Amino acid sequence: MYELTQEERMILAMVDDLCVDVVSQRAADIDEEDEFPEDIYELFVEQGLFALAYGEEHGGVEVSMHCWVQVIERIARESPAVALMILISAIGSDALVFSGTDEQKESILPALAAGEAKICFALTEPNAGSDISSIATTALPDGDGYVINGSKIFITNGAVGDYFTVFARVNEDGESKPSCFVVHKDTPGLIIGRKEDKMGLRGSVTSQLFFENMHVGPETVVGNVGDGFEIAHHTLNRGRLAVAALATGVTAASLAAAAAYAKDRIQFGKHIADLQAIRFMLADMEISLEASRLLLDQASSAFGGDIQAMMKTASVAKVYCSEAAVKASETAVQIFGGYGLCKDYPVERYYRDAKSFTIVEGTSQVQRSLIAKSVLKEY
């Protein structure tokens, strides 16, 4: 496994302190209120957490993918919705980091690293989820720029974003070319739609976006016209790895809560932790947690290497970790019994949050299709 540097260990210790002192105290309220937690965002800005996803040349702090993933996991133990703030900043800007022009990088990335601006990843549409080849948003050439029309759905931080990486089809030369644009929130024609009322990940605001004759200049194109699929796939690899980290955080939280409750709860004259049935449930949760962390480490090591190998390892981690989180949180609810169904205890929130991970950034079924495709090529 990767050995963290001294600086990375110090960063993680600071994150642990923030989680205990602040995030854990606010997690239930954030879930109940379902509003973007500006207070915690500002605290993360003060501690430089958004800078971890960016290189020093853009005002960031150079850390390994292993460290970044552990930051996500540790925050997610208390609140995956809060951890998503770190995740979305990185995913939304990956297109610029890897394919943006020098001007785009210099004008946007330092503000993101400093937390002075927020960015969103606007890919999903009502009729185009994992099937990104079906995106219907269009960008028609118009003079020296493009006119974008269409809509997006389930956009994390859509209601609070300052910049949006928008994927649309450019129809030119008789071809339909999926492309990527970076757009500011004040661009005329960009309309923020309703906020979704979700089952889980509440406090991470998810919104619709509408583009009505939104004119953008040529300087907004990320990479080249037609690079949209390549940019999206690269970004989704980080996204899937990050969701696996979120899920692992929930698995860890579920195990900790279930074990503590089992040692305290007395039934039939003994602590339920002394019952073999409960012990086996806790053991299975521990096995899943250890396996999840090993897969996360493997996928983190592959990041930045061969794109196909990275895609497979990220998908494997995403499937296993997300499904392990669902099972672990369900088990925690079961161990808590009737109390597990009540909002006075956190395990029902873990259960609601965990289900999201098998869907976002590509469903488990889509990930299995990608994995199988890779396996058949390999053998």
- Report the structural category: alpha+beta
H/E element order: HHHHHEEEEEEEEHEEHHHH
Using only C-alpha atoms, the radius of gyration works out to 21 Å
| Number of E-state strands | 10
Give your account of this protein's structure.
There is one protein chain. With 379 residues, this protein is an alpha+beta fold. The protein has three domains: 6-113, Butyryl-Coa Dehydrogenase, subunit A, domain 1 (Orthogonal Bundle); 119-227, Butyryl-CoA Dehydrogenase, subunit A, domain 2 (Beta Barrel); 229-378, Butyryl-CoA Dehydrogenase, subunit A, domain 3, CATH 1.20.140.10. 54% of the residues lie in helices and 17% in strands. The chain is built from ten helices and ten strands. It has helices at residues 6-33, 38-46, 65-78, 80-99, 102-113, 228-264, 276-302, 307-336, 347-357, 364-378; strands at 119-122, 138-142, 145-156, 163-172, 175-184, 190-195, 206-216, 221-222, 266-267, 270-271. It is globular. The two termini are 27 Å apart. The mean pLDDT is 94.
Give the SSE map:
Blueprint: H1 6-33, H2 38-46, H3 65-78, H4 80-99, H5 102-113, E1 119-122, E2 138-142, E3 145-156, E4 163-172, E5 175-184, E6 190-195, E7 206-216, E8 221-222, H6 228-264, E9 266-267, E10 270-271, H7 276-302, H8 307-336, H9 347-357, H10 364-378
Parallel strand pairs: 1-4, 2-4
Antiparallel strand pairs: 2-3, 3-7, 4-5, 5-8, 6-7, 9-10
Helix pairs in contact: 1-3, 3-4, 3-6, 4-5, 4-6, 6-7, 6-8, 6-9, 7-8, 8-9, 8-10
Domain Acyl-CoA oxidase/dehydrogenase middle: 120-214
Pfam family, one: Acyl-CoA_dh_N
GO molecular function: acyl-CoA dehydrogenase activity; flavin adenine dinucleotide binding
